[in-house]
Amino acid sequence: MARYHNLAIPDIEKKLHTSSKRGLADVEAKKRLLEFGPNELEEKEQINPFAIFIRQFSDFIIWVLVAAAAVSGILNEWVDAIAIIVIVVLNAFLGFFQEYRAEKSLAALKKLSSPTSKVIRSGQHLAINSSDLVQGDLIELDAGDNIPADARLSYISLNFKTSEASLTGESTPVDKTILDLKGEAVPLAERTNMVYMGTSVAAGRGRAIICRTGMHTELGRIAGMIQNIKKELTPLQKRLESFGKFIVYACFILVAIIFLMEFWRGGEILPIFLTAVSLAVAAIPEGLPAVVTISLALGVSRLVSRHVLIRKLPSVETLGSTTVICSDKTGTLTKNEMTVQEVYSDDEIKALNCGVLCNGAQLVSGKIVGDPTEGAILVYAEKKGISKGALELEYPFVAEIPFDPVRKRMTIIRREGGKYIAFVKGAPDMLVDICALDAQAKAKILNANIDFANNAMRVLGVAYKTFDVLPTMNEAEIVERDLEFLGLIAMIDPPRPEVKAAIKECRTAGISTIMITGDHKNTAVAIGRELGITEVYARVSPEDKLNIIRDLHKRGEIVAMTGDGVNDAPALKESDIGIAMGITSTDVTKEVADMVITDDNFASIVTAVKEGRGIFDNIKKFIHYLLSCNIGEIMVMFCASLIGWPIPLIPIQILWVNIVTDGLPALALGVDPLLPDVMQKPPRPRDEGVITKELGILMLIQGAIIALCSLSAFAFVLFIEKEGLGRARTCAFMVLAISQLFHSFNCRSNKLSVFKLGIFSNMNLIYAFIVSLSLQVSIIYMPFFQSVFKTEYLGLNDWGLVILISSMPLWVMELYKLAINSPPSPSLRKRGGIENNNAQKIR
Q1: Which candidate, 215, 295, 485, 622, has a CA 20 to 30 Å from the CA of 43?
Q2: 328 among known catalytic residues
Q3: pTM, 2 dp
Q4: Exactly one of 132, 328, 576, 600 is catalytic; which is it?
């Protein structure tokens, strides 16, 4: 293996057929990508459809059912045995479909999170997926960037450092060099002219030639040895897993009671056993985890189309609990389209020259590559006839002191003939303190700065200093002292037009918006006033952001925090939901974040909160549906056994109801459109479970109504019409299934009428209803199924009874919703409990 750390840059250029100035040719890069493959670590685990299918038979209850089918076969009850096996296989296929779809959705999401890298090809500055990088590519690195491959440094600024703790265990940032190292056995941690995949840039900026990609990198070598990543469940999935165990135990107890009661009455062991097992299978919502995963995955996929990339699934749950959104100003609340409005200077051209020469942005084909603020200076300078390229030829680059949030400025040193000039650009109030100015001049400059800021303008000061000899620059303070002030460059970044409405929507939803920015106080206040934000923090440092979040946590707030710089990473990690900006964020910030806003727009954050609430609501909807239906099925059998009636349903019928009602309708509820009142409710308490006390009571009542409907049909046919047990069971069977299908419409909202929501507003549920109903009806009209399920033909009169009784769960809930939505009496209004309901907390 080549020891690139021992080679000089010209030798590496020759070996890899590349250039440390212009990079690879684009054609050559594409050729190498095809030849050597993408710059990715191989994943050991792939989606295995067969393994997923086999996993459907791992539940204990399924094997009990298989055993029951075997016993039936031994006793020559072949029809029952075959029917049970068919039901088991159908159930396995349904589970396979749900789990496989979930795995595919999650796999697609992983691809969406592919990071990007800055690369130079054929002299052009590009941003490409890191997976498309190849050996020989010339990459650009800035503070906060993740390093996408193993590479040899060819240029670095002063104080260029990388964090390599993840690879070497070195806890402090490592100073780097571009010099080739001597000696064959240089340890990995001492290869200071190399950077490695999986590490990050701690400070400074640089360029590097990629030497190894993918599994050939140091990280790839380690990954090849371990590759053992364990999937983690979200808090919601963990709570549901615990809740599912409780349901299983409760079901077993009830089923055991039914078995003992029937056995005590003298029933035959095998039919009672099959009934008990079938009821247990029907009562336990075994499809719940898969439907939760599908709902989360599809919801997250839907968010991608709304410019939101969820990196950590638990954040979907937390979104619904968010009470405060702390947002940066530039690019999030504003357009991030800076335009220079005025140059405050005695010599505008000289001030602009300084702004151009102390500038990390580029104009490529008329487009800004880099910081929008710096880009705005370049655009304005171009209009004045000042070209960055021409100036850089006249003033060659020597060294750089990068911007940092403490100094709030950057310095680039360039050479002019035999002299050296330090060009400085930064915050005016910090810059004037290091310039050779008297008190009167300082006051004049600061007043001009305040006037600009009061008009929502962002202002940068520019200054310079000439040296006869290149100074020794161990610290920035040595260079940045006694500067000559050149002027102020004032620019404006107007608010995004959609943000004002989004902030208003947040207030309605009980969510406060706080602006946290490094800009001048007056600029921040002016933007905040225009957008309707009442709490603004300006001139904020990274430490301030942490303190603000901690104070909000002490108040009991659930905080979402935006950020883009590497200095924002601690605050994002401290917040409940860290939100990185997709366009401007560093890789480190994106990795720390729970979600990424790909268009850097505050309105997209509000959309994420709205969708997050909707996703959680949909999870509650299908849980509500599944459990209330299962409660109804248990109650039918339990109540009939308790009062001494014949068993209303035979085992095969119970199993069929479970399949025809639990599958498609539950999935349809999992993708229900957002309710119109989703942003008119206060945030959900963070510790609130999926099943609240109120919802639990409602499910018991609804389950009782479903059971009552089925038992009523059974009793009417058996005891009043005296049509016989087979016909009574057929009617009870049909009513139990169809009443659950009608009930699925109830579960779309516990408060809003389905007719107000729109019967056809969820076409997936309509299709699920039609398909499930068709399957259920086929059971009684196809001779083969009649013999298997022991059903009898129903006439029009029978169907009138079935439809009337089956639809009762829907009508009862409609009456309930009508009652709770009725206007309160005038006397209640006078007591003040309603009138103050929409009052907003003003911070």
Answers
A1: 295
A2: yes
A3: 0.65
A4: 328
